[in-house]
Amino acid sequence: MYRKELTVISQSEGDIIDITEEVRRAVKESRIKEGLAHLFVHHSTAALTTIEYEPGVLSDLKRALSVLAPDNIPYAHNTRWGDGNGRSHVKAALVGPSLTLPVGKGELLCGTWQQVDLLELDVNAGRTRSITCTITGE
Amino acid sequence: MYRKELTVISQSEGDIIDITEEVRRAVKESRIKEGLAHLFVHHSTAALTTIEYEPGVLSDLKRALSVLAPDNIPYAHNTRWGDGNGRSHVKAALVGPSLTLPVGKGELLCGTWQQVDLLELDVNAGRTRSITCTITGE
Amino acid sequence: MYRKELTVISQSEGDIIDITEEVRRAVKESRIKEGLAHLFVHHSTAALTTIEYEPGVLSDLKRALSVLAPDNIPYAHNTRWGDGNGRSHVKAALVGPSLTLPVGKGELLCGTWQQVDLLELDVNAGRTRSITCTITGE
To answer: Does C89 sit within 8 Å of A50, measured CB to CB?
Structure first.
């Protein structure tokens, strides 16, 4: 087992940050040839998924998330806490904080058009996001 | 590897039940210091995710799920089986039944505002829900 | 650890293909008694989840996915690439490419009404989809 903490700094709400290279590097460092790479983001207003890292489809994804949690509706979370990030929590809970990918022949195995991404969902910009990367196997 | 079956009893549709303490206890019992904690709920009308366990945001999450599967539309599942829980199956399939979190220094690693929760999505109340918790590592 | 590549051929957009038997077979072949079964689909326009494999509820799930990514709206991905599958990428990123289930007494552990499914989300029919199945444990 090999563990590495990845750190990502986001600029603004809706940022989608490609972390595939950082995960590939962790896989190399682990020297594990056959196994799994697990990722977990330690924040309730960020999430992890895979998507083709292409500006058009990233904006399409943001639009879809705004169907679930629009900007312009009242949130009970905001009313209680005055945070303004009710929509961020909702999106993060639905996309989810964890992702596991296979490792084979010492490489991260994923499709050509399938990048690993952090979704910055908080309304407050400039956040440092921690992701625990755990590589297990042989 | 350490395995424990967790049991949760829900009261009604939409219940979100914080199981973080039960998972922490399983991690302690496992005596595993560095590894992963995997959770899986054995039902097609319940799901697992992380969210800040705060009543406001929990009600915001329920509203978002009702966008995907509203109460007041026809469901082909209900027409075929007369179950009334078509919306429950749809929500459960989209949120998902499994979740994996890291374990470090013998503790469950997750953010301060990130609780592990069972979502009771079935229309029929008072259900006993089984979650298999598997802790792997060293 | 035991690894097997599963291959699924889809016919058309929206196909939901039950792969539970293939996963059960891989668990048997692995001879692992207690552990985990991880699945990962290597494509950005397909996804994995669990749902009751019943035609009514499958069509209900398709309707819910079309709320997130309707057929009849413009997609930035389509405008840039002329692909026509912007909605496919969006749905796949929200459902997710990976799924982990427990293995106990040499069997895949999941609920009676909980089948493991590949969601074919691409608009282009007749695709061969690769899923890496990794069984870990003792």
So the answer is: no
Nearest to A67 among B57, B67, B109 (CB): B67
Q: Is A15 helix (H, G, I), strand (E, B) or coil?
A: coil
**pLDDT confidence of residue B118:** 98
Q: Is A86 on the interface with B (CB under 8 A)?
A: yes
**Using an 8 Å Cβ cutoff, are B44 and C51 in contact?**
yes
Q: Report C:37-66 residues touching B (Cβ under 8 A).
A: 49-52, 54-57, 59-61, 64-65
Task: Say whether pTM exceeds 0.80.
Answer: yes
Burial class (CB in 10 A: 0-12, 13-18, 19+), C130: middle
Residues C95-106: tens digit of each pLDDT: 999 999 999 999
Q: Which amino acid is at B61?
A: L
CA dihedral B22, B25, B30, B33 (to 10 degrees): 110
SS3 of B31-43: CCCCEEEEEEECC
Q: Give residue for tokens 């009849």.
A: C72
Among residues A62, A93, A64, A61, the alpha carbon closest in space to that of A77 is found at A93
Measure the CA–CA gap between C56 and C60, rounded to whole angstroms: 6
Chosen from C52, C99, C117, C136 to mutate, greatest number of chain B CBs within 10 A? C52
Q: Do A75 and B68 touch (CB under 8 A)?
A: no
CA nearest to B128, candidates B9, B12, B25, B22: B9
ipTM (interface predicted TM) = 0.96
Record the tokens describing residue B133, joined without a space. Answer: 């918790």
Provide the strand spans (E) within A1-138: 2-9, 16-18, 35-41, 46-51, 98-104, 107-108, 115-120, 128-137
Pair of tokens at residue B90: 């749809």
Question: Does B107 reach chain A within 8 Å, measured CB to CB?
Answer: no
